[in-house]
Amino acid sequence: MAWRKHMNLSQAKLKQAASLMEKHGLDCWIVEFARETGNRPDPLGYLVGTTVTWPSAFLLNRDGRSVAIVGSGDAGQVESAGVWDEVRGYVSSPRQELVKLLDEWRPNKIGVTWSQDDDTSDGITLGMYRMLESILEGTDHSSRLAQAGALAGEVRRRKLPDEVEGITSTIATTERIFQRVEGILRPGITARQLQQEVQRWVRESGSGFAWEERMNPLVDFGPLGAPQGHTLPGDTALRPGHLIHIDLGLIQNGFASDLQRTWYWLRDGEKGAPEPVSKTFAATLAAMDAGMAALRPGNAGHDVDAASRQAVMDHGFPEPQFAFGHHVGRVAHDGAGVLGPRWERYGKAPDVPVEPGNVFAVEMELEAPEYGLVGLEEQAIVDNDGARYMSNSQRELWLLPRKHR
After folding, report:
1. Cβ contacts of residue 137 below 8 Å, gap of 6+?
2. What are the backbone dihedrals phi and psi of residue 12, each rounded to the nearest 5 degrees, phi first?
3. Rounded distance between C-alpha atoms, residue 225 and residue 222, angstroms
4. How far is residue 190 from each of residues 193, 219, 270, 365, 401, measured CA to CA in Å?
């Protein structure tokens, strides 16, 4: 019955979107105007509920009514998805049905899904936008098109209970895989070998990868041999005195996770991690705690990032070169807004305020130069009074090999 739950969730999200349209000044939202979405998936596809071949328009009225205008060959599958109140098929062009529907609804503002700052709200391609303009040319509706990226972003950000449940389930699967990692870690295993084994477990679990498989999980053993960030695991072999850092994200039943964990392999005679490692972990944890304390409704993303960033520098480490957090939902990097600094690469996303129902990945990675990378990443959900972890947060550096008592 998973398909039925998906259908109900799509309908619930459309209802949520309709309730937000007045806030965004829109009377009608063209949720998707696309073609061949099996070849080029639309980021709003989770609202549509199916793929299409021919040029199609999926429209939502702010009173909650919804209509799909699709090629006659797509009409059957769109109807069977059960998401849209009405499905209107066409043969040669969507022009007549689309203009007819807009004449019936008489909207003053027609939202079109594009965004300069958020790829998950940037649905329509330039070619399809030009087609839409051509279809509406000469009608009263041609001058009523408006950007709907902000609406799409808010719909993605504000998670419904079923979405939170889906993310929580994916987190649990990810954490079970992390628990298995300790069973195969041993001196001599390479980062590439560990990645391949984890990937096998992911496939066995029936899950998918939340980002490009060849870099999922990211695995770092010992001193960094490449710039920090998204790099391929190599043939570095694990040795005593190495930090072990893993960044893993899954997709399960349409929902994502994104978690990082860190271990240290003790050298002979060591009873704990050396001071540089302990100091790096303490700074990383302090940055996580500072960011979480600032992750409250009403604070802008850059305010949350600034609190975490300051904690890093207060501990004597260089300013981080990345954002503290990002939304998680249908994909690992989801939703409009980022917990990041006001840098040009983030556009206006750091100005978006935190809201109840937001789910974030919050993270910090700091280098202990002679030992490797300490990285912590958790999923957190925002409530009315603040934020709490959805994952079982790592509060201490995990030491290997485990001492059996």
Report:
1. none
2. -65, -40
3. 9
4. 5, 9, 23, 21, 17
The pTM of this model reads 0.92
Q: How far is CA 325 from the centre of its chain?
A: 10
- Model confidence at 226: pLDDT above 90: no
- Residue 400, beta-bridge partner list: 265
Residue 339 burial (C-beta neighbours within 10 Å; 0-12, 13-18, 19+): buried
Sign of CA dihedral 84, 85, 88, 89: positive
The tens digit of pLDDT for each residue in 74-132 reads: 999 999 999 999 999 999 999 999 999 999 999 999 999 999 888 889 999 999 999 99
Alpha carbons within 13 A on the beta-carbon side of 346: 24
Q: Which two tokens stand for residue 6?
A: 């998906």
Element (H, E) at 292: helix 275-294
**Cα→Cα distances 355→20, 189, 204, 271, 385, Å:** 14, 43, 36, 44, 10
For residues 323 and 162, give the distance between their C-alpha atoms in angstroms, rounded to a whole number. 28
**What whole-number distance in Å separates Cα of residue 4 and Cα of residue 159?**
19
SS3 assignment for 19-64? HHHCCCCCCEEEEEEECCCCCCCCCCHHHHCCCCCCCEEEEEECCC
The pLDDT mean for the chain works out to 94
In 77-172, beta strands by DSSP E: 86-90, 110-112, 145-147
Please choose, from the candidates 115, 118, 379, the residue with its C-alpha nearest in 3D space to the C-alpha of residue 256.
379
- Give 220: exposed, middle or buried? Use CB within 10 Å, 0-12, 13-18, 19+: buried
Tell me the Ramachandran region of residue 203: left when phi exceeds 0, alpha when psi lies from -120 to 50, beta otherwise.
alpha
Identify the H or E element spanning 327: strand 325-327
Higher-pLDDT residue of 42, 290: 290
CA 232 to chain centre: 21
The owner of tokens 């030009």 is: 130
Q: For residues 289 and 270, what is the distance between their CA atoms, to the nearest angstrom?
A: 28
Rounded distance between C-alpha atoms, residue 398 and residue 186, angstroms: 14
